[in-house]
């Protein structure tokens, strides 16, 4: 039994049965899963959720599956880190990092959306799943397909980081490299879904896929002790996660599980791909697509499918947006690692760098709780750190050589003796 009612077009409101579908046939707006919230009242409670598994499936009642989960048994329920050392450095009172660099099995937020989409693909009777990906989605789809025993076809731009490609290929999917950027890959995948009858998780299973992203927001609220952070800073690529964290907060408010503190949502992008940040800062409702050029490849989507809704939710919530340069992204990766022991990829660096800029701009006040969404792991993108560290010359395994090295370090640290200036 589930609380799912139908699929509904976000603009014209036309309703459809639960079926593979991307958009409404009438007005081409995205379709979204509808639930019977009245029936949930008194049944979906803090207690019922707390009694669930330590995975994203503890929120199963708020997800669009009918039977038992088919994968993602260990996905989600990642750490919410109270980042006191980083907070002190930034001069803010209360700062949290929601850390999906620790997600399972593929170390990014994508394990959430894929857990739901692959379970749904099996419910619909598909035997092949696929995706259009900037890297992390391919990795996650390949892993979950292996867990569930499905075939997979993952389509990616040709120039992704090697760590993502190797990790993805280890699971045995059919990897297809496309000569083009993500938007070219996505366009092709829409045709593939129709022609081959496969479950392309972010195309014809998109309404189910996107619902999985709500679990990121549910976890933030539950892990803060059933409260919402006043300010949430979220990376924006295709525009799935920001509106879905917002929806998660609103669902918890509607069910009476948290108090409505009017949470504000903030978008984070790289300077080299910032259509949403540009539109928000210009006060525009529509964005202009871009050709991406940034080290933050996992969020390099120049024509975001749900960008319109990202702008809407940022505005409606009283939030804002900004973007960060590649050097700012790298500095933020190092700052997060040095203060909190979290090694994130450029997408996470982007989010922290943008949070810092929004705090400095005065858009996010220093005395209210802030949550920064870290969505991916740095071990997959080590080439982003090329040239960051000095060469380390090996020394012989002798204590004398170690002593000499320590002494040389000390000398290098000491201020130059006055005599040398004479
Ligand atoms: C996919 C992704 C995002 C956000 O993508 P949306 O399409 O906006 O949901 C953020 N960070 C990482 C690391 C990602 O892989």
Folded structure, characterized:
- The protein has helices spanning 37-40, 46-50, 84-90, 110-124, 136-148, 162-170, 182-196, 206-212, 214-223, 241-254, 275-282, 307-317, 326-340, 346-360, 399-413, and strands spanning 4-9, 15-16, 31-35, 80-82, 95-99, 128-132, 151-157, 174-178, 199-200, 231-235, 264-270, 321-324, 370-374.
- It has a domain at 80-106 and 211-385: Rossmann fold.
- A six-stranded mixed sheet has the order 4-5-13-10-11-12, with helices on both faces. A four-stranded parallel sheet has the order 8-7-6-9, with helices on both faces.
- 39% of the residues lie in helices and 14% in strands.
- It is α/β, with parallel strands linked by helices and 422 residues long.
- The protein binds pyridoxal-5'-phosphate (PLP).
Short description:
The chain has about 425 residues and is α/β, with parallel strands linked by helices. Helix content is about 40%, strand content about 15%.
């Amino acid at each position: 039994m589930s609380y799912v009612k139908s699929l509904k077009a976000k603009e014209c409101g036309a309703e459809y049965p639960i079926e593979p579908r991307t958009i409404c046939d009438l007005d081409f707006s995205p379709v979204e899963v509808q639930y019977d919230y009245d029936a949930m009242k008194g049944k979906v409670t803090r207690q019922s959720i707390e009694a669930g598994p330590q995975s994203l499936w503890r929120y199963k009642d708020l997800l669009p599956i009918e039977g038992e989960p088919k994968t993602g048994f260990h996905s989600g329920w990642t750490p919410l880190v109270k980042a006191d050392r980083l907070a002190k450095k930034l001069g803010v009172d209360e700062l949290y990092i929601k850390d999906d660099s620790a997600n399972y099995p593929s170390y990014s937020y994508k394990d959430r959306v894929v857990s739901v989409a692959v379970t749904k693909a099996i419910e619909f009777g598909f035997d092949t799943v696929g995706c259009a990906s900037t890297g992390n989605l391919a990795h996650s789809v390949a892993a979950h397909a292996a867990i569930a025993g499905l075939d997979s076809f993952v389509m990616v731009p040709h120039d992704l980081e090697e760590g993502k490609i190797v990790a993805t290929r280890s699971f045995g999917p059919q990897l297809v490299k496309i000569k083009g950027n993500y938007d070219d890959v996505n366009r092709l995948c829409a045709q593939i879904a129709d022609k081959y009858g496969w479950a392309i998780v972010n195309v014809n299973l998109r309404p189910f896929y996107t619902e999985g992203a709500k679990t990121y927001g549910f976890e933030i609220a539950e892990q803060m002790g059933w409260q919402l952070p006043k300010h949430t800073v979220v990376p924006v690529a295709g525009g799935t996660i920001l509106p879905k964290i917002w929806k998660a907060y609103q669902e918890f408010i509607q069910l009476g599980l948290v108090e409505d503190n009017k949470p504000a949502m903030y978008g984070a992008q790289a300077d080299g791909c910032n259509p949403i940040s540009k539109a928000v800062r210009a006060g525009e409702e529509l964005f202009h697509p871009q050709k991406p050029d940034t080290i933050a490849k996992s969020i390099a989507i120049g024509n975001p499918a749900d960008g319109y809704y990202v702008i809407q939710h940022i505005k409606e919530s009283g939030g804002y947006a900004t973007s960060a340069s590649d050097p700012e992204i790298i500095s933020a990766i190092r700052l997060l690692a040095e203060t909190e022991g979290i090694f994130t990829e450029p997408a996470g660096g982007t989010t922290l760098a943008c949070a810092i800029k929004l705090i400095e701009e005065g858009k996010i006040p220093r005395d209210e709780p802030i949550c920064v969404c870290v969505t991916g792991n740095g071990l997959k993108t080590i080439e982003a750190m090329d040239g960051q560290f000095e060469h380390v010359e090996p020394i012989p395994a002798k204590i004398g050589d170690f002593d000499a090295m320590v002494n040389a370090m000390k000398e290098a640290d000491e201020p130059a003796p006055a005599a040398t200036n004479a």
